[in-house]
Specification:
Helix content of chain B: 10-25%
CATH topology of the largest domain in chain A: Rossmann fold
CATH superfamily of the largest domain in chain A: NagB/RpiA/CoA transferase-like
Number of strands of chain A: 10
CATH architecture of the largest domain in chain A: 3-Layer(aba) Sandwich
Structural class of chain A: alpha/beta
Number of strands of chain B: 11
Strand content of chain A: 5-15%
Largest sheet of chain A: 6 strands, parallel
Oligomer: heterodimer
CATH architecture of chain B: 3-Layer(aba) Sandwich
Radius of gyration of chain A: 25 Å
CATH class of the largest domain in chain A: Alpha Beta
Strand content of chain B: 15-25%
Structural class of chain B: alpha/beta
Order of helices and strands of chain B: HHEHEEEEHEEHEEEE
Number of domains of chain B: 1
Strand order of the largest sheet of chain A: 1-10-7-4-2-3
Largest sheet of chain B: 5 strands, parallel
């Protein structure tokens, strides 16, 4: 079976126009909150530039920082594991649980575990996993992946969430008040936190200098899980390192303002040592990152701190929804990260963009996202991963544009067709006419007009 | 061994080292300005501020807001008539804690956060699991921004430390802000 690609999946999302408009408006509202927070800080651009330079320094010294981090984390009593790929990461987590005879785990938000499909793997191996972030719990109950890295159920209406809670958590039918639903989840998940012996968290930043790692949440779910469990496993991509503790100041100032417009997350927890009697494990995951590091054009996608600002601002994301990207990380940043993992499977994603550049302008670590989207297109075409229809269209364009005679003729034919035989273009077989009318065809081309009016200059 | 494989690939692929940028700092502000900003921000993020002149005033707040049967706990030595820690508690037993009061190291004006390490928590889980949270902040202990905050934290040693900025919250359901997600439902700053 050929998996559905962005255009098809976006089309499904676009069937309900009112819903698309709602999705679009909601994300734009978050983008506006981000602007307000950013504009409230006069040194914002300096912070972005500093964060960008810090991340460049990390990527150019990653080997040394990883060794330094590992040594310091171990000295702090944290067990450090290395996973070359998703499979090895999942095996490490499973074996840690099995060693302690644990069959239930509570997990806070970790896009890395989404990337590794950890939940599926653990469930197949008899481990029950409960996602504790409210948005993630909602999509987990709905048996869907998150549609946004920061706002996992941004695509869902409260009435749909009410129905899910009614089916799974026993709320009364028809209840959709966010306050009531959140309270229900609080009670349900407190029970979970109190009964789970193992907790897995993601990692926002890890400090090479001290061997500690930082986890940011608004809900407090990472802390509730980790401080009650007898074993805390933290999964992190190797690019999450920063050199020194003081650099957290720069990143914590940027992260949440860029993400939701808040000045900081409610909790920014610094885990340095396990509490007495607790085991703390940290899994360092490569899964393609060392390859991306070697791709000069795409390397700085590894600077990403997962704030989601590029999604909130993206006109394509806002109107096609996170699921249309068929990847753990949606939006512009997902579209430049995914082809590194599987160029064929994700060949469509760099084309899911208008290249407007808005993503690049809001990125807190100055990743040149839209340039990379453009560059991925070149690579993907060269490697032969574009659909045949696109290749044929490009060949015809090339044939036409490379000869002035053919170009003039094509113009004439085009104008005649638009004027006299519009139906051959404006029909359901031509996607250019979806939600779009063509302008009236001019009588003559610019060249013809110029020749008529400026004979003397020719 | 994946470790060697990963490290070798990184060493092979990492670009030439780039320089570390200069540390940032932004001119000092007056104590009044910093205090006013902190109050503005803590209110913005859903916290409450109560001005006090004496630590004992926290007791008045407690007696007018909680019942005699409510479980209270504190790690502030001056409020010692609350049940004290034995050090043998299991973290799970704090689930019934209604109100816990702490004295964090300092607060940050630009975002309303307070910095607290586990030696001031009694137990790591307590500031998260309690239903309501109190924080005793002295006006002398408010820094303007996160750069100043880390200048202080630089010298702190801790097994666990956290910035807490207001009550636990979520907006996962249609972006409607709800206070009291998994952590404390409210955060009251007693500003002295």
């Amino acid at each position: 079976m050929i998996s559905q690609k962005h255009p098809e999946l976006a089309e499904i999302f676009n069937k309900d126009e009112a819903r698309v408009n709602w999705h679009d408006d909601t994300l734009w509202w978050i983008r506006a909150k981000r602007d307000k927070a950013a504009h409230g800080i006069s040194e914002w651009e300096l912070l972005r530039e500093t964060a960008s330079q810090l991340k460049n320094n990390v990527l150019s010294n990653l080997h040394e920082y990883l060794i330094q981090f590992e040594a310091n984390a171990k000295a702090n009593g944290i067990h450090v594991h290395w996973a070359a790929d998703a499979k090895e990461h999942n095996q490490i987590v499973l074996s840690l649980l099995q060693k302690k005879g644990i069959t239930q785990m509570v997990k806070s938000k970790s896009m890395l575990t989404e990337e590794c499909h950890l939940n599926d793997y653990l469930e197949k191996n008899g481990i029950d996993v409960i996602d504790s972030d409210l948005g993630e719990r909602i999509v987990q109950l709905a048996k869907e992946p998150p549609s946004h890295i920061v706002l996992p159920c941004i695509h869902k209406k409260k009435e749909e969430i009410g129905q899910i809670f009614h089916e799974h958590l026993g709320t009364a039918a028809g209840v959709s008040d966010p306050q009531v639903l959140t309270e229900t989840a609080r009670i349900h998940l407190r029970e979970t936190f109190l009964t789970r012996r193992s907790a897995l968290t993601g990692v926002n930043f890890a400090v090479a200098e001290t061997g500690e790692f930082v986890v940011c949440t608004n809900e407090g779910n990472a802390d509730m899980g980790a401080h009650l469990a007898e074993i805390h496993i933290a999964s992190m991509g190797i690019e999450k390192l920063i050199p020194k503790k003081k650099h957290l100041s720069v990143f914590l100032r940027l992260l949440t303002r860029s993400a939701t417009g808040q000045p900081i997350t409610t909790y920014s927890s610094h885990f340095k040592k396990p509490r007495p009697g607790q085991e703390m494990h940290l899994v360092l995951v490569d899964n393609g990152r060392s390859i991306q590091l070697g791709r000069e054009s795409f390397r700085n996608s590894l600077k990403c701190i997962r704030c989601g600002a590029c999604m909130n601002t993206c006109p394509v994301y806002r109107r096609s929804g996170g699921h249309s990207y068929h990847n753990a990380i949606a939006g512009p940043i997902g579209a430049i990260l995914a082809p590194n993992l599987d160029m064929k499977e994700y060949a469509d994603l760099p084309f899911a963009s208008t290249l407007c550049g808005s993503c690049t302008h809001v990125c807190p670590v100055k990743i040149d996202i839209h340039d990379q989207l453009y560059k991925w297109r070149q690579v993907i075409v060269k490697e032969g991963y574009v659909p045949a229809s696109k290749t044929m269209a490009m060949k015809i364009m090339d044939f036409t544009l490379s000869s002035p005679t053919r170009f003039k003729l094509a113009g004439k034919v085009g104008r005649w067709t638009l004027k006299n035989a519009g139906f051959t273009l404006n029909n359901k077989f031509n996607p250019w006419f979806k939600n779009r009318e063509m302008p009236e065809a001019p009588k003559e081309s610019f060249t013809e007009w110029y020749q008529r009016n400026h004979k003397d200059n020719l | 061994m994946s470790r060697e494989k990963i490290l070798a690939a990184i060493l092979n692929n990492q670009p030439e080292s780039t320089e570390m940028p200069a540390d940032l700092s932004f001119g000092s502000k007056s104590k009044e300005e910093v205090t006013a900003k902190f109050i503005e921000m803590i209110t913005l993020i859903g916290g409450n501020v109560i001005m006090i002149n004496d630590i004992a005033e926290i007791n008045d707040y407690v007696s007018s807001n909680f019942n005699a049967a409510d479980e209270l706990i504190t790690f502030v030595p001056e409020l010692a008539h609350y049940p004290s820690f034995t050090g043998l508690e299991k973290p799970h037993q704090f689930v019934s804690t209604e109100f816990a009061v702490f004295q964090p190291h300092f607060a940050v004006a630009e975002n309303g956060a307070v910095w607290i390490t586990e030696d001031l928590m009694g137990h790591r889980v307590l500031p998260f699991i309690c239903q309501h949270l109190g924080m005793l902040v002295r006006k002398d202990n408010i820094v303007a921004n996160m750069h100043e905050a880390y200048q202080i934290i630089e010298s702190h040693d801790y097994g666990f430390g956290t910035f807490i900025a207001g009550p636990s919250k979520t907006a996962d359901i249609e972006q409607s802000l709800v206070l009291g997600a998994h952590g404390a439902r409210s955060m009251t700053v007693f500003l002295m």
